[in-house]
Amino acid sequence: MKKKQWQGWSPGGEQAEQHYLVEPRALAGGGDLRHVSEFLRASGWRDASTPGGPLLMESPDRAVRISYDPYVQPGGWTIHGKTSGQQDEWWATLGRQTPVEIVAGLTDALTHPRSAHAPNVWEPLQEQHWNAGPKAGHYTATSPDGSAWMQFHQDPSGHAMWWSGARDGQGNGWTASFSATTPMHLVQAFSASLASPEPVMRPRGRVPHSTAIRTTSVSVLPSQLSAWQQARITAARAATWARNSVRNNRPRTTARPHTHAGGARARR
């Protein structure tokens, strides 16, 4: 394990706390759920959670629901999208030890407009030199260290889905499944976050016991953590405000109804 002094401001009397940068990120453990939920809330999503119950977030148009339930087995994240327009119903499930930063790759994308470019799930993996090709009859991409994978899976009955996950030699890890109808730009957003080489931060006592991870010890001030978290929330609010402003200022394309000359006036 490497040690490093994290640089930043130091208000008087503030005590630095020990954290760890963990890589590969896929084996860093679950993390703080607020990394996902606070961004969604700042993006206009409704928190429908009940006191003492699982986390439940609902999109502004009520077309998508995201829940995290640690009280059932196997527990974890469930994302469900309703049938809407040309989009069929879809779902995704992610195990409870899926790092929140990887979950956020998918859930953050739900708040963004779709790109005009055709999505490619494999591209982010290839850019990070994942090994891709047929494996046991399914097309699979595996991380260079072999700890994480992404697979397009099709069973004998013809049912297709995306399957992903990470595992070390001691059995620690998680899996994620996506329906074949899950929008491809969301699966690509997930794969990009999964393959990212950037480490993720975990506080002392929340680092998994695994010989497959590398850690760097850093000293972090509480004010630094708060500022980083607030920057993410502020970015979500700014993006939401910009989208709403464009939508509200968009010129109408349909003619307004009007009365013919000499017609009766509407009462006030």
Automatic annotation (TrEMBL):
Location of the DUF317 domain: 58-115, 142-200
Pfam family, one: SPDY
Disordered: annotated span: 245-268
InterPro entries: DUF317_SPDY
Basic residues: bias regions: 249-268
Protein name (database record): DUF317 domain-containing protein
